[in-house]
Amino acid sequence: MKKVLVADALSPAGVERIKAVAEVDIRTGLKPDELIAAIGDYDALLVRSQTQVTAAVIEAGKKLQIIGRAGVGVDNIDINAATERGIIVVNAPTGNTISAAEHAMALMLSLARHIPRANSSLKSCQWKRSDFMGTELKGKTLGVVGLGNIGSEVAKRARGFEMRVLGYDPYVTEERAQNMQVELATLERIYKEADFITLHVPLTPQTKNMIGAKELAMMKPSTRIINAARGGLIDEEALVAAINAKKLAGAAIDVFVQEPCTESILFGVDNIIVTPHLGASTAEAQDMATSDVVDQVIAVFNGRPARYAVNAPYIPVESLPVIAPYVKVARTLGRLLQQMAEGQFKSLTIKYGGEIAAFETRALKATVLGGILEQISEERVNVVNADIVACKRGIAIAEQKEPVCDNYQSLITVQAVTAGGPLAVAATFIRGEVHVVKVNEYWIDIVPTGGYFLFAAHRDRPGLIGAVGNITGMADVNVSYMHLSRLKPRGQAMMVLALDEALSDANLKQITSLDGVQTAKLVKL
Question: What Rg, from alpha-carbon coordinates, does the chain have?
């Protein structure tokens, strides 16, 4: 049974669900050396934002298949180290979307109406209405920096307050922005025109301290800034200086460079509101984020793709019904090809026919490669780093798409050129099962069941099937079914036997010694 380590506090309901398929240990608050010492026993690691999943942790996780972050950001996970080790990293990019957007709006309203200070003043038995003159959101300009899941939801809510919305995001098209009723603008224009600015970008070398003294000097004295994204996006010292000099009206900060944070220069400034990273702190968001991550861990354990893999080819939600079943097909073809091929791989051509040809197939390409390489590489090879390993090995890969497929709704064909010659295998997905339907020019139909298959190329002649059956019978190996494909009577043919147990090398030699048999390959699928 798989083992899962939960290193941060997650939703109990979500954690309970994964116990049906794995042994789960909840050990929160582990120190770095304690985590390194423990992680070697686990197949999956689940965290939020507190646990730091460093390269040292990943190196110690010899069995790790997947790391799940129950939230949006993965700043606390060394993605490069995980990718190099072939470990899938997943997050829950939509789980806390509404919660974080609503918190940004709450901070905006709190800034506009001085709610925290007014609350504190009145509870100190002071009635000072004139000290807390606010401003309305209606008619004001909001600058949204980052129009991803959360930023776009903030923009939607701001329109409900009748605000004018400017947006900055280099990866959002003009058409998409128009659909959101957002006017795309440069950062400089937002800094100069916006009455409120809200940040919704990750922390990267490019975004670190993206708002410093220079940017703050562009803003109006009435501008207010909200950061519920990531600590480090704003130069805190420059922010405090601008507010103290009345060059900025205020700021609301939910995130910090170091968390937990109990001391900061921000805490002593009246016009700065601070909250302890509450963007995702709603019961609904925690349940959804944990459920999203748990679902992906279960999927990976069952050989299916992760929906929100950070370092693996992404399968769009709308493509999942078509593409997801063919991940199993792709893996089967990779494993079959690897076991049947002779000599060094030189090149691969992956052909997609029929319905799947109209979809993004990067995940299928990576899965084919993973199936081929996982048995022959001393590196951990899977959907994440298969391309990297193939490139290092000099395997040239091509893809072809053909929208028409005569015999099936969809078909994947993988052709390999090796030192031993060319080899082609094809498979499809029918009635909920993978069907291998072609080997080289031979049409067949076998369903991989986790057992053994004998592929024997031979010249069709009377008595050969009986002779092979006699060898398997003498070896006490049961044949569950067989399939024979021939190009013409008494011509070249392919015999496939589904076996309950493996044949020995001596048995295979007996088969190839039979008159007319050219090759006999034992494959486990």
Answer: 30
137 and 188 share one domain: yes
437 shares a domain with 458: no
By the 8 A CB rule, do 224 and 252 touch? yes
Same domain? 467 vs 384: no
> Counting beta carbons within 10 angstroms of the beta carbon of residue 461, is it exposed (0 to 12), middle (13 to 18) or buried (19 or more)?
middle
Same domain flag for 357 and 458: no
**Apex CA 383: angle with CA 381 and CA 388, to 5°?**
60
69, 200, 230, 458: the catalytic one is 230
Alpha carbon distances (Å) from 151 to 102, 145, 157, 170, 398: 11, 7, 10, 13, 38
Element (H, E) at 239: helix 236-244
Active site residue 277: yes
At residue 213, the 3 state secondary structure works out as helix
What residue has token string 């944990």?
290
- Quick one: 65 and 102 in the same domain? no
Q: Is residue 157 among the annotated active site residues?
A: no
DSSP letters spanning 92-147: -TTTTHHHHHHHHHHHHHHHHHTHHHHHHHHHTT---GGGG----STT-EEEEE--
Which candidate in 48, 114, 277, 331 is catalytic?
Answer: 277
Do 371 and 476 belong together in one domain?
no
CATH number of the domain encompassing residue 82: 3.40.50.720
Specify the number of domains making up the chain. 4
- Is 136 assigned a catalytic role? no
pLDDT in tens, 25-54: 999 999 999 999 999 999 999 999 889 999
The CATH number linked to 398 is 3.30.1330.90
Q: Please state, rounded to an integer, the average pLDDT across all residues of the chain.
A: 91
Same domain, 383 and 436: yes
Could you read off the pLDDT of 317-357 as tens digits, one per residue?
678 788 888 989 998 999 899 899 887 777 899 999 999 99
**Token representation of residue 80:** 């490069």
Pairing of strands 410-418, 421-430: antiparallel
Other Cβ atoms closer than 10 A to 171 = 8
Cα separation, 2 vs 301, in Å, equals 8
Q: Are 335 and 107 spatial neighbours (Cβ–Cβ below 8 Å)?
A: no
- Alpha carbon separation from 240 to 10, 96, 121, 436 (Å, rounded): 35, 29, 22, 66
Q: Which residue has the tokens 């498979």?
A: 427
* Given 34, 162, 259, 342, the catalytic residue: 259
Q: Is pLDDT at 463 greater than 80 in this prediction? A: yes
Structural domain including 521 reads: 449-525
